[in-house]
């Protein structure tokens, strides 16, 4: 026969073990992502100056490593190049469509071993549909099919906007032209 004290002690420790096992740490609950308060898709078209296309270039190399120059992107994944741009934004992927604004800012190639860049730019709208700007910043790992960068603010219709923009390279023509599809999801709208 098992003494009552031993039985009570064993039950007490089993209960204590069960309680402590249920509280081994904070439980992570999957939070549902909120729906965006605004979603828009735009395309921006970047034509890099290559020494021969000054009439239609919308971007130029303004900084280059010592082994590079200002008309040809550097070797080694363009590492060290800084490019400023003033690109047209369109509602579809046609470069010749009526622009609804301009993508203005810069990108810099920041890694030697991987083709990647860092972006800082604004969409400045001039259409009757949208007024103001949306500001973006973030790393752009160019070899990924889609990449997310942060929407960090805005003005006018986009006052204090916050969200995420998913970038996808929609077209690429060597070292001279690329087109980005920008899917903007705003989660803070005023």
Automatic annotation (TrEMBL):
Location in or out of the cell: Secreted, Extracellular space, Apoplast
Protein's GO biological process: phenylpropanoid biosynthetic process
GO cellular component, one term: apoplast
InterPro entries on file: Allene_oxi_cyc_Dirigent (IPR044859), Dirigent (IPR004265)
Coiled-coil residue spans: none
Superkingdom of origin: Eukaryota
Keywords: Apoplast, Secreted, Signal
PROSITE patterns: PROKAR_LIPOPROTEIN (PS51257)
Record keyword Signal present: yes
Leader sequence segment: 1-21
Location (main, coarse): secreted
Pfam families: Dirigent
The protein's assembly and partners: Homodimer.
Family from the record: Belongs to the plant dirigent protein family.
Function: Dirigent proteins impart stereoselectivity on the phenoxy radical-coupling reaction, yielding optically active lignans from two molecules of coniferyl alcohol in the biosynthesis of lignans, flavonolignans, and alkaloids and thus plays a central role in plant secondary metabolism.
PANTHER family hit by this protein: DIRIGENT PROTEIN
Name of the protein in its database record: Dirigent protein
Organism expressing this protein natively: Castilleja foliolosa
């Amino acid at each position: 026969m098992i003494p009552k004290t031993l039985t009570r002690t064993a039950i007490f420790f089993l209960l204590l073990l069960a309680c402590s096992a249920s509280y081994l740490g904070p439980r992570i609950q999957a939070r549902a992502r909120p729906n965006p308060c605004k979603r828009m898709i735009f395309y921006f078209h970047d034509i890099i100056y290559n020494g021969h296309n000054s009439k239609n270039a919308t971007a130029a190399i303004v900084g280059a490593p010592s082994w590079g120059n200002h008309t040809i992107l550097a070797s080694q994944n363009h590492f060290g190049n800084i490019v400023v741009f003033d690109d047209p934004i369109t509602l579809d992927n046609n470069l010749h469509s009526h622009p609804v604004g301009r993508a203005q800012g810069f990108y810099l190639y920041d890694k030697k071993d991987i083709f990647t860049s860092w972006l800082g730019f604004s969409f400045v709208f001039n259409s009757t549909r949208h007024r103001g700007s949306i500001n973006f910043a973030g790393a752009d790992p160019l070899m990924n099919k889609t990449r997310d960068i942060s929407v960090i603010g805005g003005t006018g219709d986009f006052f204090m906007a916050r969200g995420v923009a998913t970038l996808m390279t929609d077209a690429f023509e060597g070292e001279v032209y690329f087109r980005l599809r920008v899917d903007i999801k705003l989660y803070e709208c005023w």
